[in-house]
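It is worth pausing here to work through a concrete case rather than discussing structure prediction in the abstract. The textbook approach is simple: state the sequence, then state the predicted structure, then interpret. We follow exactly that order.
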Amino acid sequence: MKIRTLAILLLMVGTACLAAAFFLDGRVLPAFLSILFFFAWCYALLRHWRWANGLGLLVLWAIIGWGAWLQLSHSLLLAGLFALLAGWDLADFSTRLSQVEADAGHEELIRRHLFWLTATLAIALGCVLLALNLDLTIPLGWMVVIAILTALGLARVISHLMKII
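Step two, the predicted structure:
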């Protein structure tokens, strides 16, 4: 399966989750706009417009943030978030890969990128599931410190794993 096809499939799944979250709350216009944005993003992806991936990520965060602000279904928003982030990453990777020479070992690059994407999504999913099941009251200052330490720790784990592989 080509990377671009997988990216479009993930974008479609994520958009379907977001649209379903808005539809279930009775908000037809945002759901329709999400679906319309999906088609525009796919068109830009097929035309190899690199700038569209950044715009897509911005609109993705805006739609998910709007859904969270409206207190829509958290499970649908999270599923949409993971699928859209993976689709965005693969769309950007596909665009960058199309600019590399054909004999540069595409299969190895694709395999490694999919491995790291899967590992990152699995770690993020574990953190989200843990956060949803814990009921802690932590002051904002401590949350910022914990977030920074978590990001530094995750970066260290990833750099250690990259040395191994």
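Step three, interpretation. The helical segments are 3-24, 28-46, 51-69, 74-97, 106-133, 140-164. The chain has a mean pLDDT of 85.
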